[in-house]
Each structure stands twice: as structure tokens, then as C-alpha cells.
Design goal:
This protein is an alpha/beta fold and 307 residues long. An 8-stranded mixed beta sheet has the order 1-2-4-3-5-6-7-8, sandwiched between helices. It is globular and about 50 Å long. The relative contact order is 0.14. InterPro entries: AB_hydrolase_fold, Hydrolase_4, MAG_DAG_Lipase.
Length: 307
């Protein structure tokens, strides 16, 4: 059992950010801050958050700009901001972390980001790695620079605040290609049919982002992969990278190893990489999610012990 509540905070540029908080009934050993992925929302992490609270963690997670209840209050899903939207969204995470540290000054704080959430965390730690005690990247990836530049330029031709289905197809159109039974178009997310059906029916998932969203996303991808930026991460920063070998975002695990090498090149000394056999994109919602949960908990416990 856990205690759950919600609250809002206002970003420096006056966007109201929705936050969920889960608390264990026993004394907490650390705090976890979750950054959800693209075209979803923090409520989808209820099961994972409940598991973490059962292990003695306090859990926070916000709906990003253009997503969930934050996007609903903004009046537009799939739109970050008029300018520098990806970086503003990453800064929202920083602002929440500062609030968490103020509320729990004696507890370690770890970040967990899935997919786009992992990209945001990679931006976060480039300038703020001293603010937190470690990070877990799930469903992350490595993206060819020239293709990303081309994607950014292409996105600039689309209307900033209108849905961009052509860009959406360009980014996600091939993700189901290796799956035989691909009736919904979202089977690449998880092999668990119940999870996929819930995703299809959820009004806050699977929407088509705007042209400006894709422009901001590409801008963020280019920034997060710059070695010069990653060299600002403190070298003893603990990092866990998780992926499934059937995840197209991680290029079927190839991109995960490239990502690990990127951080090694930047000087990080504590990188752990785990690849789960038959795992698709949403490891936290996979058929073997308990195995993933246990791996995450073991890594967290080990790093708490070393603080």
C-alpha cells in the first residue's frame, strides 16, 4: 500500500505542471523521480510506482508539457512551447528535483526516464548531475546526426501548432515492421496485449504531435548526444541503461551500446548496461516486468549503500 496525492507547480515561463506523488507507509530510504515517455502520461506508471513504494521509495513524476493533464491545461497535446520546448521541458524536471530536494534534504534522489523521458534526463544531467545521485535510462537510443538534422529541418516546414501526421509516420512508421501480429500499430511497445489495448483506449496516449514538437525533439536529440555536453556530467555519476533486444528505439540493442560508449567517451566511470531478451520498448510494461523491476531495485539498493 502507498499514499498517493497530486499537486501542481508553475514553471518559470508560467506553465502549470501536474505532478503525482506516491509515498510508502514505512520510512523512506530514497526518492525516485520518473520522467515518462512521448505521447503518454505519468499515470501509466502507477504499477511501477506502487512497487517502488513497497521497497521503501518515495516516488514523484510529472506530466510533461503537451502531455497528460499538463497538456490538457495548456490546451494542446503534443506541443511543448513556442521556442526551445525540449529544453524547457527538461528544465521542468530540474525545477521539480529542486523542490524534491527541499522537501527531502537527507534522502538520495535518483532519476528514471523512459524513452523521451530518458532523452530529457540526458539533457538534465549534462548541466545538473550534481543535483541527483544517479539515473536510469529505459528505452533510450542513439540517433544518426545527419538524419536528425534533416528531421529537424523537415519539421520546420510544418505548422507549429497543428498535428504533423507525416512527421509522425516518418518517426514511428517502421517500428512495427518486425512484429507479425501488428493489428493496432502499437505492438512494438509491449508484448503484453492488455498493455497495448489500454494504450489504444487511453485518451492521453497515441496522439499526433505538432510540427513544433518534432522540431524541438530533434533539437533535443542533437544536444543530448554531443560529447562536449556530456563531458559536463560528473565522472562518478552512476548510470543504468536498460533496453529490450526487440526495441526499435534502441535499434534492437545496437543503439544502447552506442549510447553506453558515448557516456564512456565523456568520462563516466559507473555505467551499467542491461539488455532483456525479447523485451520490446516499454520494459516496465512487459510480460516479464517483475524481472525488470527487480533489476532496477537491486541497482538502486547498491547505489544507496555506496553513498
Amino acid at each position: 500500500m502507498n499514499l498517493k496525492n497530486t499537486f501542481w507547480y508553475t514553471s518559470p515561463d508560467n506553465v502549470d505542471i501536474f505532478v503525482q506523488k506516491w509515498e510508502p507507509k514505512k520510512q523512506a530510504k530514497a526518492v525516485i523521480q520518473i520522467a515518462h515517455g512521448m505521447m503518454e502520461h505519468i499515470e501509466r506508471y502507477e504499477n511501477f510506482a506502487s512497487y517502488l513504494t513497497s521497497q521503501g521509495f518515495i516516488v514523484y513524476g510529472n506530466d510533461h508539457r503537451g502531455h497528460g493533464r499538463t497538456g490538457e491545461r495548456q490546451g494542446k497535446l503534443g506541443y511543448f512551447a513556442d521556442s526551445h520546448g525540449f529544453f524547457r521541458t527538461a528544465d521542468d524536471l530540474v525545477q521539480l528535483s529542486k523542490q524534491i530536494k527541499a522537501s527531502h534534504p537527507t534522502l538520495p534522489l535518483f532519476l528514471i526516464g523512459h524513452s523521451m523521458g530518458s532523452f530529457l534526463i540526458r539533457i538534465f544531467i549534462q548541466q545538473n548531475s550534481s543535483l541527483v545521485d544517479g539515473a536510469i535510462l529505459s528505452g533510450t537510443g542513439h540517433f544518426p546526426r545527419l538524419k536528425t538534422i534533416a528531421g529537424k529541418q523537415l519539421a520546420s516546414f510544418f505548422s507549429p501548432k497543428k498535428e504533423a501526421p507525416w512527421m509522425n509516420k516518418l518517426v514511428f512508421g517502421t517500428y512495427n515492421k518486425k512484429i507479425a501480429d501488428a493489428s493496432t500499430g502499437y505492438e512494438w511497445l509491449s508484448s503484453d496485449h492488455v498493455t497495448v489495448q489500454k494504450y489504444v483506449k487511453d485518451p492521453f496516449t497515441g496522439f499526433i504531435p505538432t510540427g513544433r514538437f518534432f522540431f524541438d525533439l530533434m533539437e533535443g536529440l542533437l544536444t543530448m548526444q554531443k560529447t562536449s555536453n556530456n563531458k559536463h556530467i560528473r565522472h562518478n555519476f552512476p548510470l543504468l541503461i536498460l533496453s529490450g533486444d526487440c526495441d526499435p528505439v534502441g535499434n534492437y540493442e545496437k543503439g544502447i551500446w552506442k549510447t553506453a560508449r558515448l557516456f564512456e567517451k565523456a568520462g563516466l566511470e559507473s555505467i551499467t548496461t542491461m539488455v532483456f531478451t525479447n523485451g520490446r520498448h516499454e520494459l516496465l510494461n512487459e510480460a516479464n516486468k517483475e524481472e525488470v523491476y527487480t533489476a532496477i531495485n537491486s541497482w538502486l539498493q547498491a547505489n544507496i549503500s555506496s553513498i
